Amino acid sequence: xxxxxxxxxxxxxxxxxxxxxxxxxxxxxxxxxxxxxxxxxxxxxxxxxxxxxxxxxxxxxxxxxxxxxxxxxxxxxxxxxxxxxxxxxxxxxxxxxxxxxxxxxxxxxxxxxxxxxxxxxxxxxxxxxxxxxxxxxxxxxxxxxxxxxxxxxxxxxxxxxxxxxxxxxxxxxxxxx
Length: 177
Ligand code: ADP
Ligand code: MN
Fold this sequence. Notes:
Distance between the termini: 17 Å
Strand content: 15-25%
Largest sheet: 5 strands, parallel
Oligomer: single chain
Bound molecules: adenosine-5'-diphosphate, manganese (II) ion
């Protein structure tokens, strides 16, 4: 039997540029006993790449290897997972999926400032308009654990973090030792 976890696992997902990492950096200061996994960094640190996509100018993550490394860590609970891909994690290990959303003009500015080339910006803007990340989330997890939050302004981010912190408190109350 699987050991129970004493704190939830929270995915923060969204199209690149929506504010996942900024939100998570802020969130982890509020949830002190949580481990924060920025999956792009985690994959790099653990050598979970299986190639390079020249068109997209990005590494291709070996998802099997990634999950082999990450699953034992997720089983311990108290995790914040930051990735634009959300549909690869085992459903039984995920308690909340926060999908950050962003207005397209803001997203354009953020990705442009990041130095993305035009086709990569366009691909991400299209994905955001189509709600691709949200769609992946609702197809992969129970709809009631998927929460969509707008992330256009600093105020949005502060309120989003407060909501996640309140949700975490509620989860703990609903899952007493
Ligand atoms: P992601 O991790 O989803 O790719 P980041 O957190 O790196 O996104 O944010 C991309 C850029 O947008 C950063 O420059 C960040 O400061 C800015 N940003 C993120 N969220 C917000 C927000 N809610 N309001 C204003 N700027 C934001
Ligand atoms: Mn990021």
